[in-house]
Structures are given as structure tokens and as C-alpha cells.
């Protein structure tokens, strides 16, 4: 039993109450009277309605240990990152790890593995594998259907996956940046129920009018809160909050609580904000998570106030799991699994002969996954196209990690590096090795360090190389979350010291091979136009 200032979302009121629970479930909420100074405020726990846990470079149990500090009790995770590397066995590996912790990690069955036929992945999930996963108790949906052109074109394989989920009673998550009007309505009518990729209020409103839930997303690279937050007041029953991709240093600082703080500060109703942050995901995904009602699991967060939302106590199924920022759960040991067959590369592998023609250049924008295409005259030396530091044009490469192949090479503007190189085996969605740098020698050093360690994020400056090893599928660490967050932050700062002005250079780099986000990206097979959905030549 605990006496608190009880925040009732059902009644849209706050009052002093005793919350009584037994055997992990609330038995009674006794109303005592007016609010009392000095008592904490009891609210339902925060839920991240769409996240790729692997982006934090942590396993689910370790992710949960960090998220609980911030009052996040549950997540809906799409494990398509590990599915691309390890197939259905990788997803089962994540589920088994999650079962060893009280943190409420739920999962979707990945719908698009591989994400496209234009890149090399190691895993593939068809209807048979998806059906296996949908029968797992932790699985609550078919994860984001990124192939929205396939949905609109009624591609038989795409539609069969959607129909399978519907037949078994599962919602289908979406991923359709920029769709508005009739196309948005057609996407929803095909069975898609959510989207976290909205660029504008008009797009989000069109999708909501069509019957879709819209997720407001604030991750380490992609953010749309400032654009979409009016929806919290306009349509509080059709909005959820998510992070999508959260790197480990950002997760140490905060999670869904940060969005709640910002939304309340913007003047949105506390009750509308908490519906979006806490209970709407329970409703949409039918999650077995408590809402602070009698009969519910005692899943709750006590916060010091309703301004900063600092979690002072956190309960899961009646068990106190965090107190004053200290997590009371032990670490869960893990034995890494991996697939890594790449061989080291040499500067000659990155050579691009000069033809006298202009080249296509990928242009990045801080805080966005969308890139633009420019056609520019390249800088050349001794018959070879080179980086042009004065115009911030660097060399980008993707190295196939699953078999030995010649690297794919392109050029990119907006990273800002003045020297050295950075690389990562976290490269959505197939998780080949992606690297950007000022010269071929630095790129080779940093890529080869990742290969030698069988996965990691790395940096090369001069003759020195730093790396955060990622031995689990080349995308996650087996270390504790605090250590991973600190190491990642050091590498991020080192990249900025090399000249990068991006707020999250490694996160941005990890999306330069994500072909389903326009305009121009690089796969291990070549330069790809995400608008026309086809390969294009480097030269024009």
C-alpha cells in the first residue's frame, strides 16, 4: 500500500489516495481527499510505442534497466535490425533475453526483412516465419510495413503478410513518409493502423482522418515533436509517443519522459499528454500493462512533480524495480551470436576513376533521415575522384559484411569531417559496414578495425583508431548500458572534434544505407534513388 497524489486519467482529476495491491495487482484505490504537499504523484508508466531496441546497442534486458530510470515501463520494439542479420533466430534471441526481466518488452513480427531486394542481408522473413513469431506471447503486432509502394500496388507478398496479421487479430504498423490524401487513405484501407514517419501536420491530419494512429517521434536522428505536437490536443485519442531509434548516450539522458515534459510545457493538458504517453499504446496494441485501475497489474511510476516528471519510484507487477534513479534489477548475462564474413579492404578498393563528368552527391540534413541529391563537379587528383574538404564533400562507402565483395563508393556532403574517418556496422537495415571519411587511408583503417572486431562503431584520426565493439550480431554490446553510453558519447565527441557539425554523426551515418528513405542512399550494391526505387550511376 502507498499513499500518493493519484493522477486519474479516467476522471481527469488528481487527488490524495491510498493505492493497495496484492500479488502484483491493484486491489483498491481509496480516495482520501485533497492533494498533499510532499507526496509524490502516481501515474501510469510511460510506453515507447515504436522503437528498435538494437539502436541503443543494448539487449532488451539491459535497455530496460536504463529505460526504467526514466519511468518507461514498456516498449513495443521492432526487432528487424537483428532479423536482417540473424533471421528468425535473431528475433527469438531477443525474445528470450526479454523474458529474463520484469521490464515489459513487447515486439512486432518484422514485416520487411530484407528491407529491399537492392541490398545484401543475411536474414529473410516470409509469411511462414512471421506466423511463427505472431504466436509468441510477447509479439503484439506486425511491425512497420516499410514497403508502402508495395502496399499501394497490392504486391501479393506484401498483402499476404498484412492479411496474415489481420486473420490472427494483430494490428499492422506503418511507415509511409509523405503520403497524403487519397494515397494515405488507400494505405490505411489496406490494413495499416499507425505511422511514425509524418513530415507535416497536413500529412498527419490526413492519416488521422483516414483512421490511423500517428506516433510523435523524438529519436537520436529523426524528430517531429515540434511539428506534430498540436495533435496531442487536437486528437489525443489517436496519438502515441515513440523514440524509434535511440542511441545509448541519449537513452542515459532520458526517454519518453522528455517528450512528456516538453508537451506539458507547451500547454497541452496533462491528461491528454499522459494518454498519449501511457495508455493509448495499451489500447491500440492490447498490452497487458497496468493503467492504475483496480484489477490491473501494479505497473506505476511515482514522480516528484508534474513539471519535470523525475521518476522517484517505479513498480512492475507490484515489485519496486527503480528508486531515485537507481535500478534494482540485476544484469542479465548474454552469450553473443554473430555473422561476420567481410575481409579487410585496401585504399585501392575505394578508387573512383575520374571521367570528367559530374557526380551525384548525397546531402545530409541534421535531424532528418531524408537526404537530398545534388549534381556537382568533383574534385580530382591524378585521375581519381577525391574528397573535397573545402566544399564538405567526403567519400562514403558500404562494405558487405556477409561475403567478400568490392566496396560500394559514393560521395556525401554535410558531415563536416576535416580529417579522419568514422565507420559503423550498425547500418540500417541490412547492417553492412558504412563509413565516411576525408581520405581512403583513414576509411580503410576504420573499416578494418570494425572487421577485426566483428562489429562495432569506430573512428580513425591519424594513425590512432578507437572502437566500441559490438559483438552481438555486430549491432549490440554485451556490456552494461552505462558503459556503452559513455563509450558511445566519447566516440561521438571525437567525431565532432574531427569537424562534424551533426548532432549525432554516428546515428546519421547509420541511416545512409537505408534505401526506403528518400532521396539518395548507398547500399552495398551501389547508389540508390529512393524516389524512383532504382539504382543510379554515380556519374551524370
Structural class: alpha/beta
Report the C-alpha radius of gyration, rounded: 23 Å
End-to-end C-alpha gap = 71 Å
How many extended strands?
A: 29
Q: What percentage of the residues does DSSP assign to strands (E)? A: 25-35%
> What number is the mean pLDDT?
96
Largest beta sheet: strand ordering: 3-2-1-4-13-14-15-16
Q: Which ranges are low-confidence, i.e. pLDDT below 50, for 5 or more consecutive residues?
A: none
What coarse outline follows from CA principal-axis ratios? globular
Descriptive account of the structure:
The protein is of the alpha/beta class and 540 residues long. It is 27% helix and 27% strand. It has 15 helices and 29 strands. Strands 3-2-1-4-13-14-15-16 form an eight-stranded mixed β-sheet, with no helix packed on it. Helix 6 (181-189) packs across helix 7. The relative contact order is 0.14. The mean pLDDT is 96.
